[in-house]
């Protein structure tokens, strides 16, 4: 584990705990401060412990995983509902369309928070550097 640590930083960062805190929308370091300042915008610093969070680089990963999960959950359910009840096409479009939108909006911030927690725990993208002096 010491190969990923910054000089002088020997603290343990449990990955599972950091990802769970991030998924709950909390700071991966302390678990108290809010991770997001709006729906998907990560705060620059934790308001509780002042941990720098601006290093995160989640990019398209959370959106890709959300689409993957929603489609893999929705497709078998759609098929099962069609075989069991044979609803009209418009009923299927409206119910599964609304379900996909709602599920996507619920999962996206949780997946992004977990990804930020993973990056923090693994000291990725600058989360392991002690401060601005490490960049020079």
From TrEMBL:
Protein name: DUF983 domain-containing protein
Entries under Pfam families matching the protein: DUF983 (PF06170)
TM spans (from-to): 63-85, 91-108
InterPro entries in alphabetical order: DUF983 (IPR009325)
Keywords: Membrane, Transmembrane, Transmembrane helix
């Amino acid at each position: 584990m010491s190969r990923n640590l910054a000089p002088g930083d020997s603290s343990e960062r449990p990955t599972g705990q950091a990802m769970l805190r991030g998924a709950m929308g909390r700071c991966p370091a302390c678990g108290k401060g809010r991770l997001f300042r709006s729906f998907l915008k990560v705060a620059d610093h934790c308001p509780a412990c002042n941990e720098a969070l601006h290093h995160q680089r989640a990019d398209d990963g959370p959106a890709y995983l959300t689409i993957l999960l929603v489609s893999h959950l929705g497709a078998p359910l759609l098929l099962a509902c069609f075989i069991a009840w044979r609803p009209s096409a418009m009923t299927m479009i409206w119910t599964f369309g609304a379900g996909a939108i709602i599920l996507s909006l619920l999962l996206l911030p949780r997946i992004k928070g977990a990804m930020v927690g993973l990056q923090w725990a693994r000291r990725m993208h600058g989360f392991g550097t002690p401060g601005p002096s490490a960049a020079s």
